Amino acid sequence: MTKPYRTLDDMGDVTGKRVLVREDLNVPMADGQVSDDTRLRATVPTIAELADRGAIVLVLAHFGRPKGKRDPNLSLALLTRPYAEVLGRPVRFIDWDGAADSVATLRPGEIAMLENTRFFAGEEKNDGQVVETMAALGDLYVNDAFSAAHRAHASTEGLAHALPAFAGRQMEAELDALEKALGKPEHPVAAVVGGAKVSTKLDVLKHLVARVDHLIIGGGMANTFLAARGVNVGKSLCEHDLAETADEIMAAAERAGCTVHLPYDVVVATEFRPNPPTRTVNVHEVAGDEMILDVGPAAVEALGDVLKNCRTLVWNGPMGAFETPPFDAATVALARTAAALTGDGSLVSVAGGGDTVAALNQAGVADRFTFVSTAGGAFLEWMEGRELPGVAALAR
Ligand code: ADP
Ligand code: MG
After folding, report:
1. Is the pLDDT reported for residue 322 higher than 70?
2. Which residues line ligand 1 (CB under 6 A)?
3. What is the pTM of this model?
């Protein structure tokens, strides 16, 4: 089936062609070492395929926030060796100074990593001069960095207009999964939205109520919805000033035929620390000095039954303060139910968000979801229904 954007399958013969590939290599570092190489590993399919097809592969990426200045601590030269290890192939490092001459020495099938794109002051401004400088080094452009696609920068958006542009394999997998989850999903569709605050996810909630059949609200943001309905949430994290907004979202859901699920039992404590004394109570029984820190077991069981009747699930935000035991219980239990239903083939499950991915890893189920997006900001903007400039620029 033809995709709305061009992929590596549309590139034709790339032998000897210089292909600029935008990747996300922004890995966390500790004591000068890569502490988590997930992002490096995710680039392997695209880079290996292009090298095997005889392209001259030129990897473009940003690293940290050098703010347009050269910073040796943020040089991509630091990643050349770990990246070569992950790829299992040699990687050359190429500085921006004299880049054209260095690129000219590369042979088909060779891989080079260009210096940090953000050493250019104009990178984040999508400056035409920077686009030209980069474009002059390549014949073709591949964007494989969905996680950077919500930014219209020179290397993520501008280049797509300067050279023939294609989506890499990682980008393609991400777009396929997102399309399945919210573009043209199989109904009924459930969305789980949790996390700390309503205020950071207003646009997500507004977009989802019109598209999903069940909206499951958990985490701290559920407190705002409960408070808006007159529930005393005690000392819970709660944005009381957003009561009206919460009511508007409930009304919009009702108009759209979307069932909103709020917890009816909750786990509370008077202290927020690991393993404090807790009570599991009906939401109407929270004491004035207590905090709601997790969704209760009865609600979780009912939510599991909702998922059993759904074909598609999209999940962003934990159900409770999962970093602090035992307030991970609801998130873990619901995640396991979703993973089991996915395994049975009855549910397509897509999840994303920094803390959500951490919570799913903690539950040990991340690899049993259909797709888990590691793109934090880009994933949220997509859940808000926004067009991502880096993706839009790849349209056929
Ligand atoms: P994501 O990064 O996946 O988008 P968020 O950043 O929105 O998720 O939310 C995650 C945070 O929400 C976690 O730090 C978690 O502890 C917090 N949280 C969830 N439920 C509660 C709660 N009931 N009270 C306080 N914090 C909560
Ligand atoms: Mg977060």
Report:
1. yes
2. 194-196, 200, 219-220, 237, 292-293, 316-318, 320-323, 353-356
3. 0.91
